[in-house]
Design brief:
The protein has a domain of 121 residues: Alpha Horseshoe (Serine Threonine Protein Phosphatase 5, Tetratricopeptide repeat), CATH 1.25.40. The longest helix is centred in the first third of the chain and has 25 residues. The protein is flat. Helices cover 76% and strands 0% of the residues. It is mainly α and 907 residues long. It contains 48 helices and no strands. Helix 5 runs antiparallel to helix 6, helix 31 packs antiparallel against helix 32 and helix 42 runs antiparallel to helix 43.
């Protein structure tokens, strides 16, 4: 039994073991696991095809999720291995196919999968490009394949562009670089930089600067960019200051020279990291730039040459010469270097040193540079020869050399040629007409009007007058005007220019020059050389125009504050046209304003001799005699002018004479303090004013002036007689109404005086105080004390009014009459002490102060009484009663204080 129990379980165990063995051998799970393991081993051994086949064969949608994930990963890894293998074999299309499928299986970004292949292709393109020109075709083929796989790809286009440059295909190079620039934007500096570099090398430097500016915006710290920008600026004749700063930065200690010990590192470290295709290549392979070359020293020397040129253009000739000399020591003496040294030395007037460099440069140059020849000629002419007698020969040689290389329209060339010919004019007896005409034409082409140019035009006119062209004369005229250049044949050139003035004026307008200045210079010089008439070349009808021109110019100069120039214009006019009455008048006026009365009087006398019936010179003579202080001569001149005039003109002359007499009459008040007006002068003024009114009865100014003089002289009868004609409401002049009120006051027509005074006060605020003072007197005469007091208060309140002190004095008198002694004291105290003494109010003021004190004592105001008594003493009152009165007032005040204190104590 026991054996049965043992055998049955054993059989079951063996059966189960056999079943397990068969399952492990033939079951789907173990078979799948073994196949997966074999696939992994195959993948590790590089058999990506076997691994991929196994992964594909094992895939079943009914598999558990964990197995689906394992097989998907196996598939992706196999695809990635296939990508690596294809890239290694440069089968980039197959690599891209596997990479994209791997990304699809593994769920990765398709862009990353594509970029992996493209990056590998670009790396290969960079490697092949670094290999030199032999790899050009391969790079072109590879970049074309890259663009079939990814578009756009700016780096591929960039390398293709440089391949075109290697082939010398400039148009294709620029087109490809432009495409790369547009595709890359600000992501890479290389396209913009290389467009600029290529454009510069094909002579399009101005256009290159735009792209170099874009490169500079991408990375302002790249020394290659600043170097190329500076070089291009110099080549394009751009801003030399900007070029100087760019080159100094690029060639400084932190610029390109930093990599002189390791030039290859410059292509890596000088370009921005992550934004440069060149840097990517140079980081892995040696790089020789197809555009700039591989010699960093040559690049530095090119920059130093441009820097020297920038210094030269900035006028720093010594710095330029030093740089050129340094380059000569480092490299072969090229014509450009020799020329640079020579020009820099020549501009420093180191002609002998410059000569040998410029001569060597000219001998080597093909074709010859005209400016090299020009400065060589300059050095030959200006240098110091070993034998002094060789100097004229050298100058003649310089002139001949210049004639071979003439450049018209260039100011620098014209300046050099002018300097050489200036030396020739001093050393050589004469030059052929051809040489002189050639010089003048060169100068005319640049509108040269300096002193040397003027000498050249003049020399041609002196030696070969028939060869002088109108433009030569125009330019001479301009130069003579600017620099006051004068020559023996000066007027001949002016005559040629002004004989046909219309084209000359048009030329001056084109150059934005003032033709009137030239015309004035011509007139001034003609006045010196040929006085008594205007220049004949200006035409028979010019004298009237010339007089008008000189008068207008004189007024313009005077308005601009140039009084000497204004006077000179009139001197020129009188030298050219001595009978000019207007000229005499204007010149006399100018001398009068300068204070030269003698010269002004002489001119007026000359005017009077030319036209004895004209009253104006005599009238002006009267004004001058007034300024001289010669009253008798002034009166005689006025009488003479009156004899030459009639009607209203005679009235005007009489009024002028009256005003001058009034001024003379009152001038003594200013000269001598407290002096009364000159009665004789004022009497003469009255006579002249009456003469004026006899010919012009409605001359308002004469009327009020006559009233003013009569008021000043105290002629009450005359004022009263004039009152009737002074009531004219339509008149706007407040002075007329004010003096009308004075006349009415004298005529005792007080109501009319009030009316006219009010009219004057309303018309002009400046006469308000004076008008109220006159009105106050009218109120006084009408016994209207309150109205008089109000008018006097208004007059007294005015500041700086002549009537204010009188009004205060009269207010004090009114207050005294009312027994308002304190008010009277206040009014009189407000008057200036000097005027108060003049009014003889000091003693009345002292007595009034004492009277106010006595009145206060009488009213029991003992303290105020004591104060007034003291004030009277301070004002100078000498009265023996002051002491006792003061003592009594103080005792009374003290008694009151004691009494008041005792009363308070009792309470």
């Amino acid at each position: 039994m026991w054996s049965i129990y043992v055998a049955v379980p054993s059989a079951l165990i063996v059966g189960l073991a056999l079943l397990a063995g068969f399952w492990l051998l033939l079951g789907s799970g173990p078979v799948r696991s073994r196949a997966f393991s074999r696939a992994q081993r195959a993948l590790d051994q590089g058999d990506w095809q076997g691994a991929l086949t196994t992964a594909v064969s094992l895939q079943n949608t009914r598999l558990p999720p964990i197995w689906q994930e394992k097989l998907r990963n196996l598939n992706g890894e196999a695809r990635q291995a296939a990508t690596d293998a294809a890239l290694k074999d440069k089968q980039y299309e197959a690599a891209l196919e596997h990479s994209l499928k791997a990304a699809s299986v593994l769920g990765g970004p398709e862009a990353d999968a594509r970029a992996r292949v493209v990056d590998a292709m670009l790396a290969e393109a960079r490697r092949q490009f670094a290999g030199g020109a032999d790899g050009t075709d391969a790079v072109l083929e590879l970049t074309a394949r890259i663009e079939t796989l990814q578009t756009p790809c700016p780096e591929a286009v960039f390398w293709r562009a440089l391949c075109y440059y290697r082939r010398g295909e400039i148009d294709q190079t620029l087109a490809a670089l432009t495409t790369a620039f547009e595709q890359a934007g600000k992501q890479a500096i290389d396209p913009a930089f290389y467009i600029g570099a290529v454009l510069h090398r094909v002579g399009r430097s101005q256009e290159a600067l735009r792209y170099l500016g874009e490169a500079n915006r991408i990375d302002a710290g790249c020394p290659f960019v600043t170097w190329q920008m500076g070089v291009a600026l110099v080549a394009a004749n751009g801003d030399s200051g900007l070029a100087l700063r760019a080159l100094q930065r690029a060639l400084g200690s932190r610029g390109l020279p930093l990599w002189s010990p390791t030039p290859q590192r410059a292509w890596v470290e000088a370009f921005p990291e992550g934004r440069s295709y060149i840097r990517r290549l140079a980081s892995k392979h040696p790089f020789v730039c197809p555009v700039l070359g591989g010699d960093l020293g040559a690049i530095l020397r090119e920059g130093q040459f441009a820097l020297a040129q920038a210094h030269y253009r900035q006028g720093a000739f010594q710095e330029a010469a030093d740089l050129f000399h340094k380059l000569l020591q480092e490299t072969a003496p090229t014509p450009a270097l020799l020329r640079g040294v020579g020009l820099s030395l020549a501009r420093q007037q180191r002609y002998d040193q410059a000569y040998k460099h410029l001569r060597a440069a000219l001998e080597q140059e093909q074709p010859k540079d005209p400016f090299t020849a020009a400065y060589l000629a300059l050095c030959g002419a200006m240098g110091r020869p070993t034998q002094p007698e060789d100097k004229p020969k050298n100058v003649a040689w310089a002139v001949r050399l210049l004639s071979k290389y003439v450049q018209t329209g260039n100011a620098e060339w014209a300046g050099v040629m002018s300097t050489v010919h200036a030396e020739a004019r001093m050393l050589l007896p004469s030059l052929p007409a051809e040489d002189q005409t050639q010089l003048c034409d060169v100068l005319a082409a640049v509108a040269s009007v300096n002193a040397q140019a003027a000498a050249a035009y003049h020399q041609l006119a002196a030696t070969h007058p028939d060869a002088v062209k109108p433009i030569h004369a125009w330019l001479y005229v301009r130069a003579a005007t600017l620099h006051d250049f004068r020559g023996e044949h000066d007027l001949n050139l002016f005559a040629l220019a002004f004989r046909e003035a219309a084209p000359a004026r048009e030329y001056f307008a084109q150059q934005k020059w003032d033709f009137d200045d030239a015309e004035y210079t011509y007139l001034k010089r003609s006045a010196d050389a040929n006085p008594g008439r205007f220049p004949e070349p200006l035409g028979a009808d010019y004298p009237a125009k010339g007089e008008e021109f000189l008068l207008a110019r004189s007024h313009s100069e005077e308005a601009a504050g140039r009084k000497d120039a204004a006077l000179e214009c009139m001197e020129v006019l009188l030298r050219l046209a001595p009978p000019s009455l207007t000229g005499h008048d204007r010149l006399a006026c100018l001398h009068y304003h300068r204070g030269d009365m003698d010269r002004a009087a002489a001119l007026l006398a000359g005017w009077h001799r030319l036209n004895p019936v004209d009253p104006w010179p005599v009238i002006r003579q009267a004004i001058i005699e007034q300024q001289r202080g010669n009253a008798l001569a002034r009166a005689e001149a006025i009488d003479q002018a009156l004899g030459l005039t009639q009607g209203r003109q005679r009235a005007a002359v009489a009024f002028l004479g009256a005003r001058l007499a009034i001024k003379e009459g009152f001038s003594r008040e200013k000269a001598v303090q407290d002096a009364a007006p000159d009665p004789e002068a004022l009497a003469h003024a009255v006579k002249l004013l009456q003469e004026c009114l006899s010919h012009d009865p409605n001359n308002l100014d004469a009327l009020w002036c006559l009233a003013a003089v009569r008021s000043a002289t105290g002629d009450r009868e005359g004022l009263a007689a004039q009152a009737y004609g002074m009531d004219r409401p339509e008149v706007k002049d407040a002075r007329f109404h004010y003096l009308g009120a004075v006349c009415c006051l004298a005529a005792r027509d007080y109501s009319k005086a009030l009316e006219l005074g009010e009219r004057a006060a309303i018309s002009d605020a400046a006469l308000t105080a004076e008008s109220h003072y006159v009105m106050a007197w009218a109120h006084v005469h009408l016994n209207n004390d309150d109205a008089a007091r109000q008018s006097l208060q208004k007059a007294a309140a005015a500041v700086n009014s002549p009537s204010a002190p009188y009004a205060k004095a009269l207010l004090g008198r009114q207050a005294f009459d009312r027994a308002a002694y304190d008010e009277a004291i206040r009014c009189w105290n407000q008057i200036d002490p000097a005027r108060r003494a003049e009014f003889k109010l000091d003693e009345p003021l002292r007595q009034t102060v004492l009277l106010a004190g006595l009145t206060a004592f009488e009213k029991g105001r003992y303290e105020l009484a004591a104060e007034r008594i003291r004030e009277a003493g301070r004002l100078g009152l000498r009265d023996w009663r002051l002491g006792p009165l003061l003592t009594l007032a103080l005792v009374k005040a003290g008694q009151r204080l004691l009494f008041d204190a005792s009363i308070k104590g009792v309470k």
